[in-house]
């Protein structure tokens, strides 16, 4: 589905991402992990068009999207969320989700000012897709509440609904469980599984190893901007290079996800 080849970006003399090659399997959940400063969010920014790479290429569904701008990438079927909840708390849950669909509409500023037929059709389409997205994340009964009135978990779901409203094929989740308690994290895992069961492919950056090990089909490990390992969770948890890079001397028996720092609540920040 998605293939990156030799991907890299420099900021001045610093290689934030360097020579990363990987591929995401359709219908799978791929976790991107690594210690602080490993280049995980930068990697997502490259895929989603927020940054332009200084080397390498990105192919999505057979098309080279390396130089596309962000809205063009979204239009191709890649949507993402961010580490911090980027919702409009004063707007309703429905209005937030409708914003996510606007990339699929054609009406411009003049259409909006004159309330043209195209604007009305686009608005109706955005409303329908937003309601569909809210149903998928379990918020259809809260559509008319202010988004800021929801719990942290609810606001995270609004952010996911905004991404879903753009009708993506690939969903990038940047630390989706940040700020959530254990119960909310379990609920989020269930939602992600449902979305993948409904046909989505998901890649996520996450530092909660309980979530990663319990959810991911495959894990990609970055360290100092480079890929040092890729494989199934069971294999990654035993990889000496990964344990050394990600957990260091705090690893218990070289097993990621075991008792201690590798578990939720004591996990090193990624």
From TrEMBL:
Residues 2-249 form the ABC transporter domain. GO terms for biological process: D-alanine transmembrane transport; L-alanine transport; L-isoleucine import across plasma membrane; L-valine import across plasma membrane. One of its GO terms (molecular function) is ATP hydrolysis activity. It holds the Pfam family ABC_tran. InterPro entries: AAA+_ATPase, ABC_AA/LPS_Transport, ABC_transporter-like_ATP-bd, BCA_ABC_TP_C, P-loop_NTPase. Gene3D superfamilies: P-loop containing nucleotide triphosphate hydrolases. One of its GO terms (cellular component) is plasma membrane. Keywords: ATP-binding, Nucleotide-binding, Transport. This is Amino acid/amide ABC transporter ATP-binding protein 1, HAAT family (TC 3.A.1.4.-).
């Amino acid at each position: 589905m998605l293939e990156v080849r030799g991907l890299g970006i420099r900021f001045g003399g610093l290689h934030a991402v360097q020579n990363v090659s990987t591929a995401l399997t359709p219908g799978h959940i791929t976790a991107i992990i690594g210690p602080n400063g490993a280049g995980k969010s930068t990697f997502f920014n490259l895929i989603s068009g927020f940054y332009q790479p200084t080397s390498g290429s990105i192919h999505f569904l057979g098309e080279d999207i390396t130089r596309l701008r962000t809205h063009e990438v979204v239009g191709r079927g890649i949507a993402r969320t961010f580490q911090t909840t980027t919702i409009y708390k004063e707007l309703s849950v429905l209005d937030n989700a409708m914003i996510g669909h606007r990339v699929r509409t054609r009406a411009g500023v003049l259409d909006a000012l004159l309330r043209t037929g195209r604007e009305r059709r686009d608005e109706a389409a955005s409303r329908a897709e937003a309601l569909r997205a809210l149903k998928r994340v379990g918020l259809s009964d809260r559509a008319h509440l202010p988004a800021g009135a929801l719990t942290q978990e609810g606001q995270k779901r609004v952010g996911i609904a905004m991404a879903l409203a753009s009708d993506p094929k690939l969903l990038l989740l940047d630390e989706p469980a940040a700020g959530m308690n254990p119960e909310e994290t379990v609920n989020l895992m269930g939602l992600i599984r449902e979305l993948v069961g409904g046909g989505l492919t998901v890649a996520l950056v996450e530092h909660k190893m309980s979530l990663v090990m319990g959810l991911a089909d495959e894990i990609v490990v970055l360290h100092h901007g480079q890929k040092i390992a890729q494989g199934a969770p069971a294999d990654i948890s035993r990889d000496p290079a990964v344990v050394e890079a990600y957990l260091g001397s705090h690893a218990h028996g070289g097993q990621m996800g075991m008792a201690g720092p590798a578990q939720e609540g004591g996990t090193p920040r990624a």
